[in-house]
Amino acid sequence: MAIISTAGLARSFSTKRGTVDAVRGIDLTVRAGEILGLLGPNGAGKTTTLRMLTTLLAPTGGAATVAGFDLVREPARVRRRIGYVAQAGGVDPQLSVREELITQARLYRLTKAEAALRAEELAHDLDLSDLLDRACVTLSGGQRRRLDIAMGLTHHPEVLFLDEPTTGLDPGSRAGLWDLVRRVRDEHGTTVVLTTHYLDEADELSDRLVVVDRGVVAAEGTPAALKSEYGGSPGASLQDTFLAITGRAPAPDDAIPVAV
Amino acid sequence: MSPLPSSLLSDTALIFGRYARQTLSSKFQVLFGVLMPLLFLFFFGPLLTDLPLDPKTDSWQILVPGLLLQLALLGASFAGFSLLIEKQTGVLERMRVTPVSRPALLLGRVLRDAALFVFQAVLLVLAALVMGLRAPLGGVLVGFAFVGVLAAALASLSYALAMNVSTPQEFGPVINALTMPAMLLSGLVLPMTLAPGWLDLLSHLVPLRFLVDAVRAGYVGDYASAAMLYGVLTAAALAALSLTVGARVFRGADA
Hints:
A: four-stranded antiparallel sheet; 10 strands; globular; B: mainly alpha
């Protein structure tokens, strides 16, 4: 069953130098309960696609249904059913973990008592219980990311969108985060859509990959299927596969992720 | 998809509470805004006491209303800076992806600002009483109301601008370029009755002029004057326009 389907989803921006087509037409089907990786070079349109699917950015073309509702006509209904963790995260550095978790729950219209309970619950699930009364600024990178994800899971969303979830994390925290994402899917059946330009992350974590290049879907399939089809054999490296699909590497080593 | 009014109210209260707590946790933020008007009060106010500004009133009754509105003007116009920071930390997007009422994201912030600047106005008036201000209580309360309404209107516009720019470098100069002439042309520091005809005429193009005239009328107990009427009408129109603009920007999908 498709929980997300898009047809020709597009977004262009007008700039002083003319119109820029950040996303030229994305056709995408995501099945309920799968972990889908959106892979692509910087500027391919991954973040723009995610921001459209999360109602933050109005599409300039095409259509999409997310969690059963039309993205453009019923954004409020979509919002109730999705969680989004942006690259920047989204907690106030000066506020306490507890305050942020409670406010987030209240934004999803839980009562004060329910929100306080939910904050405890989330902290327990994401191993943040000892940090509840610390200011967000004092958390380590891995702890911050767990908090960001806790915020996105506050309302038991059907779909969780993660934009570059492990950028800037050390290897141990990255592995921990991958386990967490799998656990969320396994325990709650949450569909996860994540963007990344780390090939190992895409390979390791995703059930299925969608390679986005120049604002369109360049290829899609399981990591193994993509390797066979584009890389020459199921044992091909994802790096070679990626090069074969896009003609260039996913991102230079020192690249800073660009959000559009 | 417009949200129910009840959710608008409860969401506004929620957003207000969040930012009010944030403000209260920083004494610096609570007190800093009142510093500049206090300097004017202490070091500029005494220069006016023997000047023949207006035979019917005391110089403090002229200066303090101007300083009150200056406080709101210079404070609330820069309110958008905090939103720019929240855009960078992702807080704004995180909230916008929840079902929270979009206008509540504006109104909660604006009400916090109005409350903050009214509180600072109270401190300023207390200091002015020590310096020698004497004014009727009704007029003083009218003054606070004007501070609150002006702060809400300007904060609203400031947030609307902040939604449409991405860096403080784009934001700061615009605000400076607008507040400075507004301050000079509205006669906040010295009344425009002292101005030559052309300047007085020019100042009537600045809405703030009518507000400061109204508060000055209030400070001498002149509640039924034309100045008070024009001031109330101008403030109401300014607030309605600003909040409409702000709400429209916050409702927009792309902001």
